Amino acid sequence: MSQSRIIGAVDIGAASVTVLVGDIVNGRSLNIIGKQDATSEGVKKGEIVDFKAVSNSTHAAIMGAEKSAGTQIEAIFLSQTGSHLEGLYNSASVNVSASDNRVSDADMNRVMSEAKNKKLAEDRLYIHHIRNHFLLDGRPTREPLGMQGEKLEVGYWSVLGDERKVRDHIHVINGFGLNVEDIIVSSIASGTVIATDEEKRAGVMVIDLGAGATDWVIYQNGVAARTGVLPVGSDHINNDIALGLRVNRKYAEKLKLSFGKAVLEAEDKQEKVWMVGDQMIGDRRIPKQALVQVIRERVEEIFELVKKQAGELCSAKYLPAGVLLTGGGSQLDQIDVAAEKSLGVPARRGELPSWVHDNLQRPEYCTALGLLHFALSGQTLDDTAQQRRQRGLLRRVTQLFGT
Amino acid sequence: MSELNSKSFSGDLDSQGVRVKIIGVGGAGVNAVDRVQMTPHEQVHLAGVNTDAQALDSSPIGEKILIGKSVTRGLSTGGDVEIGQNAAEKDEAKLRQVVDGQDLVFLVAGLGGGTGSGAGPVIARLASEQGALVIAFVTLPFTFEGARHHEVAETALAAMRTHCDAVIPLPNDLLLQQMDESATVLDAFAQADAWIGRGVQSICAMLTQTGLINLDFAMLRKVFQGRGGKTLFGLGRGEGDDFMQEALNDLALCPLLHTPGFAKRADSLLVNIIGGTDLSISHVNQIMTAIAEKFGSKEQIVLGAVVDESFQQSVEICVIGATHLAGYRPERKSRPVMPRVEATPSPEPRQTRRATTDDELFDTSAAGSNRPVHESKLGKRQQTQFEIDQEEFLFVAEDEQRGFFDNTERNIFDGEDLDVPTYLRRGVRITL
């Protein structure tokens, strides 16, 4: 008899809340059976500024998604972004204990827990520990169990966040009467679906340009080696346009979507565009050059700051597979050209895998799809590793990557 | 704009009129006042205050005060705010004389350096203790001048706000937007000075000239009776056949009304229109309607209209407004000319009154909290009939009028606030 589990993936962004409903059959295959977007209220720069408004729009989206799926969601996977997230490289080493110098389970557990249990400040908590590598006597080793050596080292990329802000997100879901099964940072959720396994092995960077924040992740040797959040997104572009061209935000968004681009070209210099475009009173003509300049400066800066955050890993040497752009902001005309120029690494728009249905083939859904992907792989992990501790969620959230 | 002041007026003003003084503080401030001097103001007195003897020496201003001789030996502060403040406090007696008996003091300073940022708030405090209405025009440094200058300027701005009746910040970044691509840094500073000059002249004109509808000093004072809030200031000018529309457009595009840190709606508003003899009451009405709708605040709008013969076929609109702090209750201020001691309450009680509204917001000493949160009373009136009527007229909702990120945490990265448009911080000029 087949066993199915209904999982909801909730991505609360600054522009919209996306809920996808996945049916995980026998812990092996995933069917996406429901979807709902709702305009997001109360989120700025990826963080909750108005709890009630966020709850309302999120609950509406979950309700709509359940309706479209025709069933009830059992557990939620939630994305997390915001400037409070930060990444750390943690490592630890132990001496192999057995007399025959072969690495045992106990050695591995010891070194892993040592690396993962670095003390944090009061209000910080670990969200992920992503194991980057084992080193056995200095040699990179994929699976050291049973191998011979003296010194076992492990390195983790740990993502940590502000406990209160993470809890706020969880409370939004709890308010609907659902439990959060796991939290995944947006960058990793997006990265995991948009980049292929080969790209991740070769070295690739994924930049998710959201409305409130820009999340990025760099894969090396198949694992996420660095992640980061820049709390600047499309909302900033809109705000810049609104201030720079003296238009309200609604028309700023419209101008951006209709005429915006990330690179100024010669033919834009003379052109003028209508702010509203329907000849209504108060409409005026805006030089396209001004619009593009405002956007270009912001977009360039976003990529420059991402490059700064990522440090030396953001170079062609470490990223043979280049940079993949996703998220709603990646639809801006010429943004790949701007990214390539600022990052100094070939960049292109990422494509979602072909198994994703046509009506989900949009960069905005990338994070939510990534959450479902983790829901599926988390299930399979559960079966084999049997390590999932059934303690408070905040202790569990780090499980997916660590084991 | 020498036409603003006719000789016959100056006599009157000296005997019974408003005594106005423009005081430049620090290098940038004195330079700006130098420029204002090029257009003679008989009834407006000029003064320059600096710590740098050499710079002060070269200024053509009549009244020059060197402060902090004992602290700096006549050299400048070297950008140290504490020295600037120290210098002003040491020479308080001298400064008191400068502001003595003035009704209206314009304080002009460049924030971000030592003297303007340090001595500016001290002079503002002294002037308002004397009972003067203090309006400060302060320039804020370019982003490329570095994060430290910015921090200094932010702190000083907060200090100025607590001591002045109105503070009009002029971010240099923004003024650059008004200029040609080929503009030099010198031009940019000149641009700031020009804005200060226009502002001072507009306010003086409304006080000294008579016209269709008179505005006087008491009204100006009334607008600014709540202290510490944000000040709204905009200028618009139109010439030619359709000067009315042009002026309104110019006002709508005024960069000062589009800074994130600037109030865009006001609890009390003063509008002065300077036009030629062809300025009709219907013109005035047209302007008023547009302005009242744009900036809200019908309850406290004060209108002035001045006829100046040289403004034939042209009009200049000057809008000054104030937002009151949350929990603010109108406080009766004394009439303009009063014995100095009772003229205004001493700063201490004022401080405590504010402190009760919100304890930490006004703790200007802490660098992190030097941005008071301003909560206009207008928010609560958003749903009135008046507002709803405007929906179809393309005026944006209140939330949209303030910078979108106004009420969020600041987004600091390498000392720059990323929520401020990139083109502004980088000095890229956007031509509309």
From TrEMBL, chain A:
Domain of life: Bacteria
SMART domains given in the database record: FtsA
GO cellular component labels: cell division site; cytoplasmic side of plasma membrane
Chief location of this protein within or outside the cell: membrane
Intracellular or extracellular location(s): Cell membrane
GO BP field: FtsZ-dependent cytokinesis
InterPro entries named among the record's database cross-references: ATPase_NBD (IPR043129), Cell_div_FtsA (IPR020823), FtsA/MreB (IPR050696), SHS2_FtsA (IPR003494)
Pfam families given in the database record: FtsA, SHS2_FTSA
Keywords for the protein's UniProt record, in alphabetical order: Cell cycle, Cell division, Cell membrane, Membrane
Membrane topology: Peripheral membrane protein
Domain SHS2 span(s) in chain numbering: 7-194
Protein name: Cell division protein FtsA
Protein species of origin: Cerasicoccus arenae
Source taxonomy: Bacteria, Pseudomonadati, Verrucomicrobiota, Opitutia, Puniceicoccales
Gene field: ftsA
UniProtKB/TrEMBL annotation, chain B:
Keyword Cell cycle among record annotations: yes
Subcellular location: Cytoplasm
InterPro entries, per the entry: Cell_div_FtsZ (IPR000158), FtsZ/CetZ (IPR045061), FtsZ_C (IPR024757), Tub_FtsZ_C (IPR008280), Tubulin/FtsZ_2-layer-sand-dom (IPR018316), Tubulin/FtsZ_GTPase_sf (IPR036525), Tubulin_CS (IPR017975), Tubulin_FtsZ_GTPase (IPR003008)
Annotated GO CC locations: cell division site; cytoplasm; microtubule
Amino-acid positions noted as binding GTP in the UniProt annotation, renumbered to this chain: G27, A28, G29, V30, N31, G114, T115, G116, E145, D193
PANTHER family associated with the record: CELL DIVISION PROTEIN FTSZ-RELATED, MITOCHONDRIAL DIVISION PROTEIN FSZA
Protein name, as recorded: Cell division protein FtsZ
Species name: Cerasicoccus arenae
